[in-house]
Amino acid sequence: MNLLVESIINELAYKDLTVKQRSIDRLFPEFKGRVEDVINKGGTRFVGYEKGGLWKFRIGSGTTPGKRYDVYVKFRNLDSLVYELAKDKRLWKKDLSGVDRRFLAVEVLFQADLELYCSCPAFQYWGSAYILTRRRAKYTDPETRPPRIRNPKEYGAYCKHLEVVMEVLPMYVPDMMKYLGLYCMPQIKKAEEEMKKFDKDVRKAVDFLKKKMEEEE
After folding, report:
1. What CA dihedral angle connects 175, 176, 179 and 180, to 10 degrees?
2. What is the model's pTM?
3. Which of 170, 139, 166 is nearest to 20 (CA)?
């Protein structure tokens, strides 16, 4: 299948990527231990985000003291996703005055299509760059060279540094709430106004039908 065509078919959100990642143990049975080394020896730091859905982390090496790698997570098509999610009344406050941004942030974290990147050598050498490219989930330029020698069966989806970030990403709901407040309020307000107008129109229609029925009686 053409690489471009396949990549369009296989856009991946958080859950899809973590499911694909589970097979990494077949390539590296000791992978979980390596991830623990990164957590315990390297550490994780959230650098920040910018408009367009790009979030940056800096992850320490689990083997080389003082060495750090840049990890990027890009949330794709946030404007359209936020707009559609904000129309879901299940994500609104109890009084239906508008969207509960915490509920919305959780849904965005788990439903947005993601693009990932790590500056470590393993991201390239063991096939993560290629595997993510095939699924339209690699941030920065696509990688068209498959890992025929190091990872021919294309196990996993990303390196141990990205594994650390993906494990902690659900904890960044407060940061996503702030991001939505800074960059996505026009989409949220538009969705709220449309839903309130829709509800108003529905009430008018119901009242009209009720009145007609009473007149006919």
Report:
1. -140
2. 0.88
3. 166
